[in-house]
Prior knowledge:
Elements: E1 15-21, E2 25-32, E3 35-42, E4 57-62, E5 71-76, E6 80-85, E7 90-95, E8 109-115, E9 124-129, E10 133-138, E11 143-147, E12 162-167, E13 176-181, E14 185-190, E15 195-199, E16 214-219, E17 228-233, E18 237-242, E19 247-251, E20 266-271, E21 280-285, E22 289-294, E23 299-303, E24 318-323, E25 332-337, E26 341-346, E27 351-355, E28 370-375, H1 386-390, E29 400-401, H2 403-406
Antiparallel strand pairs: 1-2, 2-3, 3-4, 5-6, 6-7, 7-8, 8-29, 9-10, 10-11, 11-12, 13-14, 14-15, 15-16, 17-18, 18-19, 19-20, 21-22, 22-23, 23-24, 25-26, 26-27, 27-28
Amino acid sequence: MDQEGQLAAQPAEPRVVSLACGSSHSLALLATPAGSMVLSWGRGEDGQLGHGDAEERRRPQAVLTLLHRGVNDLQCGAEYSVAASGTEKQLFSWGWGDFGRLGTGDCRDVFIPAPLPALSGRVVASVACGDTHTVVATDSGELFSFGRNQNGQLGLGSIQDTLSPQPVTALQGKRVVRVACGAEHSVCSTDEGEVFGWGWGRYGNVGDGETQDRHTPTKAKGLEGVKVAQVACGWRHSIAVDEAGSMYTWGWNSYGQLGHGDRIDQYIPKRVEALRQQRVALVTGGWRHTLAADGEGRVWAAGWGKFGQCGVGTNEDVVTPQQVQALAGQRVVLLESGWKHSLAVTDTGRFYAWGRNVNGQLGTGGTQDSNVPVEILALSVGSINLDAFTQEARPVGVQGVAPSDRYAVVPDSAPPSNEAGGTLQPSSAAAVPEPNKRQKV
């Protein structure tokens, strides 16, 4: 899920300038008169909210560690988060650390944003997160990757995981300007408008016409003569938009997420004819759905609709892009999708959320799903109260926690019963969850 945020001059009043969505959590970047403020809400059990604990938040809360740190871009993986600071030339990561997806050099879970020493001093131009891997492009056009690599999604020519950022040497000589990640694949575009894909290719999501995994970047077919300006990924599908605003999709299509009016997988990029008359300006891919905003700011949706994440008012799949009528008449300038929820911001600063909300990821304060966009006043210009975002934020001292310290050892069989028919209590030496820790099975 890929949305670049740019902090302009300090605004007269706070407004959201960047969005990111994970599997069940959300991030927003506020530009304020005093500087940047990162907000997070939703599921937090892996530390992905950055508040120093494993609790969920049903309303946005400031990540105090990043307050006024010059953050200008946010991204979410499934259960982790990253933020780039242009002024500090630093990339921060936090959340679930398995497979090295945080790039900190180990597999520890991180509950407070931690800087990545390997990228210190580099300005991040674009960053993207998959389920368990991360890809970074610097302002000089260099490409780095880290995390899980079982399908070659790091582009390093192997299937070996890596715990810290490594250069993707196969694209040396190319200037990478945009990156995007699916669950186990990656896509990038260059300053010449070329598109490369790598990683898991079973559904054609790499875009080279084949279904094999690719361990190094492979040029997408079907885009000859097209100069691509944007790329994005869903879980197992890929998206590109050219300079003229034409949208192309490829990969997995069981839910109609490619927008071609059918459920047929595509192995090379194919133009979305239903949006031929629209000049697409923004695109984002969810787990099984796709959103696009055209040059007029109208939002179009396709794909899985079970939780209302398409925003069209029903819970049915959408195989041909439909306009999100609840946003008609407004000009959307920021658009983001998570696994099962979606977010948008208009040119007037109004903030909307829709879809799955079981962990509070919509930011409404409750857990009710919505199949149409609902305005979140706390994040809309004119109603933003900065003090409300910081008054409950209480960072703790723990930054990284090893998985063995967080999770209980789950026995293979039920515990024995005592003679009275009750369950024996664990001894002091037994491995049991501590507060704010959970089991993983």
